[in-house]
Amino acid sequence: MTNTLFLRWGWLLLSACLFGLLGYTIARTQFSGLIGLYFLLFWGYNLRVRPLLMATPRLDTAPRPDRFLFGSALLFRVLLLGALPALSDDYARFIWDGRLLLNGVNPFRYLPSELMAGGAGPTIPIDANLYALLNSPNYFTVYPPVNQAIFALAAWAFPTNLLGGVVLMRSLIILAEAGTIALMVKLLAHYKKDPNLALLYALNPLVILELTGNVHFEGMMIGFVLLAVWLWVRYPQNGPRRMGLSAGAFALGICTKLIPLMLLPLAVTQLGWRRGLLYSGLVCGLVAVLFIPFFDIEMVQHMLMSIDLYFRKFEFNASLYYLIRAAGYWLYEYNWLSSIGGWLSVLTTGGLLLIAFRRRSQTVPVAIQALWMLTFYFLMATTVHPWYITSLVAATVFTATDTSRPFRYPLLWSALIWVSYAAYQYNPVYEKPALLLVEYVPVLALLIFELKRNPDEADRADARS
């Protein structure tokens, strides 16, 4: 017992120091230090969560949540509270959008470069230092209403203090993360699983550093989606209340980050066509209501333009797209991004619908379907930043010990995706193909292994017949 306590406290102190070093002292250009400290954190993370993965998958009586480890997860997040994000500069756009709102300007209508030049749009006070930090001054904002409300709150509370605005946004993310973890514990207990499996997400270094440390709102989005699921299972007999509350939470998730939109087809496969379409329609209606304060034709045009540019202009840490691009260079010495980006979006949409509506979909748990849909989307994407994968880690909480088909490959991906930061050693950013192979080959190999090891019930039935 004493030895266990000593190891736990030793792990806690070492991990706290590593999080502190990564949060306060390391720039993203310092790749050697960055990746070394990160892998040390993952070594400690593996020590803590490996017993959960080795335990009996399903329990009649679930153990109590480990308060020490859940408290440690919260502590690591709080330790990062006062740091200015060193690995992402998205926070500057957050504050920029918030200040526009406080000046009565719709952030969806104007490019930062237009406002800075003064040749278009309203005349408002412009912070040149903040503008210099923007990584996309020539692109329209893509952040939905819930995000915009938080940005405005941060800008209102700290009108001239950039760090103050960051700390406020980070505080809200920490609160959301605490709620997300609590919901995971409740849902795991509801499904007769070990509630400590929530530690796969709560202690994951990628989740802590990217969501809390780098101020990304996937944690809040995940929390709203889980709240939607919890409200659905919480009120099994109350149809209208159940439908309205769950759809409202899901709509808030979409209005935080647009990613949950792709999961709406699962409502049909899980609830049936009538209830599924009613639920989806209610979600979309609530999303439209939340967009009303920003709505005009230009806003719609600019958002569609930004999404189109995402597929046609940006490329970073991609997998299947890079293979297509390489084939294009080899055959035609031509960069295909601007030509096939639109087709990639169409192909991705078709693939997502196929995963959701395939014949055997009702035999697959919804968490696994969501995991497959998100995985397919990120494998097809032209840009995969490290924090994108946190949604896969959240899904893995519910799939890692599934009795018939456990899937854990996102945990490996969350460890290896940080090698993508090697590209920031160079100016301009340069990605080495060898490091992309280091990231993707093990992940895809494990994914294929887990798919072959865990065939669907429908597949086994077909084989028997």
TrEMBL record:
Segments crossing the lipid bilayer: 6-24, 31-48, 68-87, 172-191, 211-233, 245-264, 276-295, 338-357, 411-427, 433-451
Organism domain of life: Bacteria
Keyword Transmembrane tagged: yes
A Pfam family of this chain: MptA_B_family
Keywords: Membrane, Transmembrane, Transmembrane helix
The keyword Membrane belongs to this UniProt entry's keyword annotation: yes
Name recorded for this polypeptide: DUF2029 domain-containing protein
Species whose genome carries this gene: Fibrella aestuarina BUZ 2
Lineage per the UniProt record: Bacteria, Pseudomonadati, Bacteroidota, Cytophagia, Cytophagales
